Amino acid sequence: MADDAHAPAGRAGARATLAKRRADVATMFDHVAERYDLANDVLSLGQDRAWRRAVLEAVGARPGERVLDLAAGTGTSSEPFAAAGATVVPTDLSLGMLRVGKQRRPALSFVAADALQLPYADASFDAVTISFGLRNVEDTQAALAEMRRVTRPGGRLVVCEFSAPVWAPFRVVYTEYLMAALPRIARAVSSNPAAYVYLAESIRAWPDQVHLAERIGAAGWRDVAWRNLTGGVVALHRAVR
User: Fold this and answer.
1) How far apart are alpha carbons 125 and 72 in whole angstroms?
2) Backbone angles phi, psi at 106, to 5 degrees
3) Does 131 count as an annotated binding residue?
4) Where along the chain is S-adenosyl-L-methionine bound (predicted)?
5) How many whole angstroms separate alpha carbon 220 and alpha carbon 141?
6) Following DSSP, what letter does each residue of 45-106 receive, concatenated?
7) What number of H helices and E strands is found in the chain?
8) What pLDDT, on a 0 to 100 scale, did the predictor assign at position 15?
9) Which helix (H) or strand (E) holds 198?
10) Which of 121, 130, 62, 124 is nearest to 90 (CA)?
11) In this structure, which long-range contacts are made by residues 188-192, counting pairs with CB atoms below 8 Å and at least 24 apart in sequence?
12) Is 163 assigned to a binding site?
């Protein structure tokens, strides 16, 4: 993608490119923070709630366990882990998202950090999870390796990410929705609709279920498996340290 498609940081139309430079990604999410949860609910037709429940079940957090929730944004994905009795550490690159999250969920201990350089000791979490964030990291393999580093032996990884619908006719419709309808709807519900053009492009460029599983295994995780949600629109990958 040409650089002239990238809006400079600080403008209301800030967006990243598929180069996924960390500063650009952070700035883009800063600009969508205020209405991010609402936009997700509308654009997913309410399916994001079911996806979060599936992540909670897959992680299986127990009281007393430590859970790292990466790309936690405003903490919507983190709250259920705290409610289950686990110690959850919501972590995100975007200060704008974290500020909104702290205002809405003051009980959570938010941390600003880069997934490629986590400020945590080796083997310090029982589970690591990332929902709709791995796709936006500059170096997927380095991030998966870093997640493994901070997970204790026998600990779990759960990655929830957009994927490839398994029914071919629906896959065509879904792609058309991503590239045409999604940005138009975003103009009505998002504070930075330009960001959703990038998000649609990044979903199209993301590896399918099999290839993501291969990447997770290549980072040293074992027993990699996945299940499709909403017909493969989203895939839930699980692995063990």
Assistant:
1) 16
2) -65, -20
3) yes
4) 74, 92, 114-115, 131
5) 10
6) TTHHHHHHHHHHHHHT--TT-EEEEET-TTTTTTHHHHHTT-EEEEEES-HHHHHHHHHH-T
7) 10, 7
8) 61
9) helix 194-205
10) 130
11) 189/35, 189/38, 189/39, 189/42, 189/43, 190/32, 190/35, 190/36, 190/39, 191/12, 191/31, 191/32, 191/33, 191/34, 191/35, 192/12, 192/13, 192/14, 192/15, 192/28, 192/31, 192/32
12) no
- H or E element, residue 201: helix 194-205
Residue 114 three-state SS = strand
Q: What is the pLDDT of residue 13?
A: 57
How many Å from the N-terminal Cα to the C-terminal Cα in the chain?
Answer: 36
Of 210, 206, 91, nearest to 140 by C-alpha is 206
Residues 119, 190: Cα–Cα separation, whole Å:
31
* φ, ψ for residue 64, nearest 5 deg: 95, -15
17 is in an annotated binding site: no
Among residues 137, 123, 170, the alpha carbon closest in space to that of 18 is found at 137
The pTM of the full predicted model, rounded to 2 decimals, is: 0.86
Domains of the chain: 22-163+207-240 (3.40.50.150)
CA atoms within 13 A on the CB side of 61: 31
The predicted structure's pLDDT at residue 214 = 98
The number of residues in the chain equals: 241
Q: Which helix (H) or strand (E) holds 129?
A: strand 125-131
Cross-strand bridge partners of residue 238: 158, 225
Residues of the chain scoring pLDDT < 50? 1-12
If one counts every other C-beta atom within 10 angstroms of the C-beta of residue 189, the result is: 16
Q: What is the pLDDT of residue 16?
A: 62
